[in-house]
Amino acid sequence: MRIAQIAPLYESCPPQLYGGTERVVSFLTEELVKLGHDVTLFASGDSKTAARLVPGSKRALRLDTSVLDPLAHHMVLMNRVIQEADNFEILHFHTDYLHYPFFANSGHPIVTTLHGRQDLLDLVPIYREFPDMPLVSISDAQRRPISHAHWVKTVHHGLPLDLLPEGPGDGRYLAFVGRISPEKRLDRAIMIARQAGIPLKVAAKIDRTDTVYYEDVIKPLLGEGVEFVGEINDQQKKDFLGRAGALLFPVDWPEPFGLVMIEAMACGTPVLAFRCGSVPEVIDEGITGLVVDCMEAAHAALPQVLALDRHNVRLQFEKRFSAERMARDYLALYETMTRPVITMPAAVAVAKRAGERLSSLELPAAVHAVAKA
Prior knowledge:
Elements lengths: L1 E5 L14 H14 L3 E7 L7 E6 L12 H15 L5 E4 L6 H4 L6 E4 L10 H6 L5 E3 L13 E4 L19 E6 L6 H11 L3 E6 L5 H8 L7 E3 L5 H9 L3 E4 L9 H8 L4 E4 L4 H4 L6 E4 L2 H12 L3 H11 L2 H16 L5 H16 L5 H8 L1
Parallel strand pairs: 1-2, 1-4, 2-3, 4-5, 5-6, 6-7, 8-9, 8-11, 9-10, 11-12, 12-13
Helix pairs in contact: 1-12, 5-10, 13-14
Pfam family, one: Glycos_transf_1
Protein name: Glycosyltransferase family 4 protein
């Protein structure tokens, strides 16, 4: 199958450091190539892929200090997709709504995976203006704010099984991985770790928009058993997550998926998370972690989470969240969306031809009656 994967340009595929959407696009692209498909990846020029790469920018935008207007580079990306669109059987976008005006009435088979939160009021007019765009959710919970949109499938994320090995969990610390922002609630993680008397290691990025929050709220909480290590890559995650006793995921927003939860599970590391968005879909309670509703419950649940069998955590990850399972889920959708649709006139013509062929055969009268009907 000739497939186009269109990624945002903020991070490379895969990202050098933090980055969820582009990481998933990379895993999906590589798995589709492994399965024998002809894949073209539209992404930043510093991406690394076994697919054919069409760059929309020279390098990932977030780490390029010369970039002032990311939209300009994404317009270049869209134009390059438009130029090649006729070459593909399916165009799979991961660029939110950026491509909608270009492809809403183009006649090309397209699908869009939404990777972000959908409860923002600014999104309401977009889905009213483009009600027929086929959308994939990364969790059922992600759909709730715009349940009226044209959802065609939910596909949970997946990781290559050899990316992050099962770790020993011998580091005697808890882990936090993500962004330092109000909705990720690092402050909760710090309180949980401190009350338990267990060190907390924080591997996180700080966006420009969250600098004030970091300086005013989080920075004063560091120290006293809380170590900030900054952004880490996939190689560093092997040790960071593999040696952690548990991952703390105390989010306070409608989490679309939470990729770090399955990264921890790949390492055999159980997860203690708050009941927001996708969390109950991702965690199998009592197997890969526990889901709580308040700080009191989190304090009480932590010893149970730390006692979970790490090998069972890894086995459940392999069962539910492999990149191959993700790719095959998408392939089933692609095939459905590109299957020829038989219109009513065409169906009548087919039935008529079949009836004519049947009438020339010596068959029981009942069979001819069915064919004519």
